Amino acid sequence: MRYLLKHFGLYAVAAWASLTLNFLLPRLMPGDPASAMFGRFKGQLQPEALAALREAFGFTNEPLLAQYVKYVSHMLRGDLGVSVAYFPAKVTTVIGTGLMWTLFLTGFAVVISFALGMLLGVYAAWRRGGYLDSILPPVLVLLGAFPYFWLAMIGLYFLGFVLDWFPLRHAYDDSISPGANWAFISSVIEHLCLPSIVIVVATLGGWMLGMRNTMIGVLSEDYITMAQAKGLSQRRIMFNYAARNALLPNITGFGMALGFVLSGSLLTEIVFSYPGQGYLLVQAVRNQDYPLMQGLFLTITLAVLGANWLVDIVYVWLDPRTRGR
Amino acid sequence: MAMRLMRRGVLAVLLLTAATSCGRARRGSASSAARRGVLTISEQQQASWIRNFNPLLAPGGVRWATTAGIYEPLLIYNTMKGEYVPWLSTSYSWSADNKKLTFTLRPHVLWSDGQPFRAADVAFTFALTRKHRALDLHNVWAYVSAVEARDDATVEISFNRPYVPSLFHLGQQPIVPEHIWKNIADPVTYPNENPVATGPFTEVTVFQNQVFELGRNPHYWQEGKPALTGLRFPAYPGNDQANLALIGGEADWAGNFVPDIDRVFVKRSPADYHYWFPLVAGTVLLYTNTTKAPFNDVRVRKAVSLAIDRAQIVKVAMYDYTRPSDGTGLCDAYARMRSESAVAAGDWVKHDVARAEQLLNEAGYPRGADGVRHGPDGAPLKLDVNVVTGWSDWVRAAQIITQNLKRAGVAASLKAHDFSAFFEKLQKGNFDLSMGWSVEGPTPYSFYVELMSSQTAKPVGELAATNWNRFTSAEADTLFREFEATNDPAVQRRLEDRMQMLFAENAPSIPLFPNPSWGEYSTAHFEGFPNRENPYAKLSPNNPPEYLLVLTELRPK
């Protein structure tokens, strides 16, 4: 319990530090939101209207500390401000349009990738030197070396456009409205396939290699030899003893990956026109939309910290050796 | 145990996807919409839609059709015909001293909630833009002193100084209903989710984050129009995705830049897929910073222009969609007003490297021993050419320009920036050479005033809306002032000719090519689009309110 509380305190400090950085970083970027806004409406906006809009946005020339205090107090109330790029929608509304879909797509893809990677890693380590072990890791690592968006475009072109096996865009069919019916759910699953296949293919190599390596380390332990001597079945040893212990370091990595779910698949989302947070982040940066950028970075920060904290708790449960304290 | 569950879970998901993927008609949504008479349009690029139909905000920030399609203006300027089309107003007239503009409104026009459209609505709309300057997009209240409703069908606008070109902005202002908007506390942040308007499509029938649809106005003032049942807008986050939809037949009308369009788009369905790119969307110029050396010298500006191979830019960067500019810099929207003598005087847009070298030598920039030119102080002539990263056609053009300049002995280098940084440099005057666009408007005055007027030239370091080259000329200012005060077509023509000559003589910035107005369409389900054979209006959906002329003509096949 004390262990968890201590960790929680650490996370709170990390959260505060990243929120402060979150406030500072956009303001250090070159260019300023006023001219970015001007550019978006090129030819449609005169400087006087722009000056009035700036006031509406709340771009003041207050000292940085005053702005920071205002930022923190608003954030604690849940008021993330008004977006510049999507004026006059509130930042919470804008983020709301994409957050769930990003969580859904990337969360799903990361979980599948992890599960598949663990399984493949276990088998590769168990039969090390065999066909699975010699061919799959290099191939998967090679695929993982390609940038996500490139794989996404290749996948979209061949599997979607040429072969017409998968839909080309969006999270569900445009003619269906969201609801708790099978038509909608099946459409969502169908549109989920190609983007998640791309993400899984790109990330599988890392998980598989990681699991394989930790498995090989565990397989040399004495208790494995003892289990074999005691006559337990191969499958039982492989999963209940070796894999369970080899899983532990990978769970930490999984926690990190879960945290980065909200920022991870930016470009994949854009290639597939998936209505998630990736595009919002790109737009926010391009338009120097400070409030939206801060809001999005906040979600990412909280996700990473939250996922890590969750993993810490799970780790305590999984590994009895940490419970002693 | 956990492993087994995981394995089963993975298998289950794979089976589910296989089951649901089979036998589903995929390219269905656009054609099913077309069967209902709903036109699918690809214009704005967003990953998901935010519900905002406020016509008083800049068109780029609200949903397409809000400024024209849902709401309507008093007049619409038709670039292809060069005339104003009466819309919510049937006629307008200037007083003798050009300080009063009177609009006569169309009778029997109703708002979509059944209330009558009156002059009070027009006066109220302008009063809103006066009270909330953020809504006064074209800063009309700098020269307008009052907008009054004389009676239910007459609006009188009074000016504090004569400014005839303002008709373009005043006439094209979208009008909002007073009986709804007088109760809105803050019209700047009001999203207007359920618009009440006079346009052909005012009902928001579907609004999801991936797609939204607009339905017909039950009280539209044009009998039998619109022929379309509705408009549909799927969300595409970028040009690639929008082009993919166009090629796949998912969009009926678009205004995208498509590279190599004959091969990429038209070839897929030559019977149905068409495009038309009239060169009426302004001019792409190479802006020169005339506030400092070397570009404060007209000879250097002309020399740089002579060194550029525009034919190659048009062919390689612009896929032959356009042609090299002439010495007046005017695009084809002003074809009727082009002055032949000015074109002849502007011979510095031809590709003549020898003459460029001669001019540079004359201006005091001879070649040094290493082949690079240097100025009188001995410093080498180094110039940066600024362009936006990702705008591939401009980047290619800028690369060609840089190569051409190097051949002429200038140490030119290409600097690609992210849009915000690029635009800030342009606006503040922190550049040597920069690619840039021009302002579009009904007369050459609109083009030249943003390039040569001292009103628009701001000092270096201050954000300037236009006239990034910061060129001023006393004669130009006199011409502009005279143009603003006159309504006489003969006087206007004389002034326009003189403006063109001034530009051709002084070369304030370097015109490269007239910008095509992008428009693609598919006649698979709909007809009535303007094209080269029937240029009744501009095809592009990128320019409100002109696309309203097309929207009311389109009909299902």
Tell me what the structure shows.
The complex is a heterodimer of chains A (325) and B (557). Chain A has 325 residues and is mainly α. In chain A, 76% of the residues lie in helices and 0% in strands. With 557 residues, chain B is an alpha+beta fold. Chain B is built from 18 helices and 20 strands. Chain B has helices at residues 2-21, 29-35, 66-70, 119-131, 167-171, 178-181, 239-247, 261-264, 298-307, 310-317, 340-345, 353-362, 392-407, 419-428, 444-452, 474-485, 489-506, 547-551; strands at residues 38-42, 75-78, 83-86, 89-94, 100-105, 144-151, 154-159, 201-207, 211-216, 230-234, 253-254, 273-275, 283-288, 382-388, 411-417, 433-436, 510-514, 520-522, 526-527, 555-556. In chain B, strand 8 (201-207) and strand 9 (211-216) form a beta hairpin. The N and C termini of chain B lie far apart (62 Å). The model of chain B has no long low-confidence stretch (mean pLDDT 90). Chains A and B meet through helix 2, helix 3, helix 5, helix 8 and helix 10 of A and helix 1, helix 2, helix 7 and helix 14 of B.
Features:
heterodimer; A: 325 residues; mainly alpha; 14 helices; 76% helix; 0% strand; globular; B: 557 residues; alpha+beta; 7-stranded mixed beta sheet; 5-stranded mixed beta sheet; 31% helix
